[in-house]
Structure formats: C-alpha cells, structure tokens
Design goal:
38% of the residues lie in helices and 15% in strands. It is of the alpha/beta class. It has one domain: NADP-dependent oxidoreductase domain (TIM Barrel). Helix 4 links the parallel strand 6 and strand 7. The radius of gyration is 18 Å and the shape is globular.
Length: 280
C-alpha cells in the first residue's frame, strides 16, 4: 500500500527506495537547488535525484548538510556522465561526485545513458559493481537503457541493475520495457513524469482530475505510483513541491489507470537512447 511520502519499494538487493522523490534536472546550483531541496525535505520528501551533468551536486550536498535530517533517512541518487564512461574514469568520476556532495556513501549510482557509439557501458557497469562491493554505494542501476542494453549487462556482468530510470509519462509508457524490468526485478523509475508540462491541459486528464478534485499533475503522479513506477518530479516552487506530493489521499480506479495508459503514443521529448551519443 502506498500510504505517504515515506512509502518505499524494495530493490532486488533488499534496499528500500522511496517511491517518490525530487528531481533537480535544470535546477541552478547554489540557492535555487538548496532552497528547493530544503522545501521538499520540510514537506517530507526523502529522495533526491541529481547527476554530474546537472552541475548542482555541490548545492545538493549543501542542502543535505543544512536540512537537519539524519543522513540515513535520505536516499540520494547521482549519475555518471557519458564522457566519464569506462572503468577507471567512472571510478574517478564517482569520487568527484562524492566530494561535491560531501557524502561518505551514496544510495544509488546510475549510468546516465548507454551511449552505444562508445561501447563502454559494460566497463562502466563493472566499475559500479566494484563500488557496490566496496560498500560505497547501496544500490546501482542505469538510466535510459532499453531492453537490449539491459540484456547485455545481465549476460555479461555479475550483478543485474537494481533500477532503470527512463523517460516515462502517459505519452510514453514503454510497456515492453516495463514488463521486462518487472520480470528481472529491476525497478522502473520515471524522469520527466509530467512531460515537461505538455500534458497538463490534456482533456482526458483534466476530466479525471476534476472527478478527484485534484490537479492534472497530481493525477499523473498518482498514476505513476499505481503503475509501480518510482517518480521524481522536478520543481523549484515550494507550493508546487508540496502540491506534487499531495497524492496519497486518493486512489485512481483500475478503469482510470487504463484510460491514462491509453494516452500512449510512444512519443519522446528526450532523445532515443540508441541514438544519443553526446559526451561533453
């Protein structure tokens, strides 16, 4: 039962991961990211998702240290960027991220993109396995990996990913990928769950929102959770951060979930992971 912001899902290694958190993509380092995270923690958020390429790890670290919440109560995620992929370079990038975050350990470390043109993600994964075995990370995973990328890791490495963070929203439900992840005990996590605001005026969602006396954003986020997808909406506005989290006092019917699933168009707002090869 998903009761509140403290509700968790159990990863295949036994680690409890919050089902709901705050993403800080495109949030400026410094006061903006610090105040956003503090507002979220005050409301009850315990999961914060950043990445090396976001350029705000230092601010995230400052917010954590100033939050007044015990470190073990928080679940912190960051990601290794494409240009740092490879075994030794990933180990170095991890240490740099930890220095910026000011943390002794990380809860979840992800490979940000597969970057197939580089052909380095298996070596990168082996570096994550080492960091995990060394006790520096509680869980390891990937981001933007398709089924064939996941199969490659599962076939060639010791530890299968615990999480796969992907673009996921009512226009892109990635049903086959979701099914594969469930079958392999890989937790699916949604980035850009609100499709960068493009779905907020969608008539079907507006109608459902009116029925529950909720916002369309709240309907989408609740739909994520009922589809067993961890979600990390981004906002820098305290009232929106609080509103996004106000989704635990109602439950969508099975019919409503099916109707929202039916909005799928396999439409991405981000790049196709098979084609995205940016390293800088």
């Amino acid at each position: 039962m998903i009761k509140d912001l403290r509700s968790t899902t159990t990863l295949h290694n036994g680690i409890e991961m919050p089902r709901f958190g705050l993403g800080v993509f495109q949030v400026k380092d410094g006061e903006e990211v610090v105040s956003s995270i503090k507002a979220a923690i005050e409301v009850g958020y315990r999961s914060i998702d950043t990445a090396a390429i976001y350029g705000n790890e230092e601010g995230v670290g400052r917010a954590i240290s100033e939050s007044g919440v015990a470190r073990e109560e928080l679940f912190i995620t960051t990601k290794v960027w494409n240009g740092d992929q490879g075994y030794d370079t990933t180990l170095k990038a991890f240490e740099e991220s930890m220095k910026k975050l000011g943390l002794d350990y990380l809860d979840l470390y992800l490979i940000h993109w597969p970057v197939p043109a580089q052909g380095k993600y298996l070596d990168t994964w082996r570096a994550l396995e080492k960091l995990y075995k060394d006790g520096k990370i509680r869980a390891i995973g990937v981001s933007n990996f398709k089924i064939h990328h996941l199969e490659d890791i599962i076939s060639n490495c010791e530890i299968k990913p615990m999480v796969n963070q992907v673009e996921y929203h009512p226009r892109l439900i990635q049903q086959d990928l979701h099914k594969f992840c469930k079958e392999n005990e890989i937790q699916l996590e949604a980035w850009s769950p609100l499709m960068q605001g493009q779905l907020l005026e969608e008539p079907v969602l507006v109608e459902i929102a009116q029925k529950y006396k909720k916002s369309t954003a709240q309907i989408i986020l609740r739909w994520d959770l009922q589809n067993e997808v961890v979600t990390i909406p981004k906002s820098v506005k305290p009232h929106r951060i609080a509103e996004n989290a106000n989704i635990f006092d109602f439950e969508l019917t099975e019919d409503d979930v099916k109707v929202i699933n039916g909005l799928n168009q396999n439409k991405r707002i981000g790049p196709d992971p098979d084609e995205f090869n940016r390293i800088s």
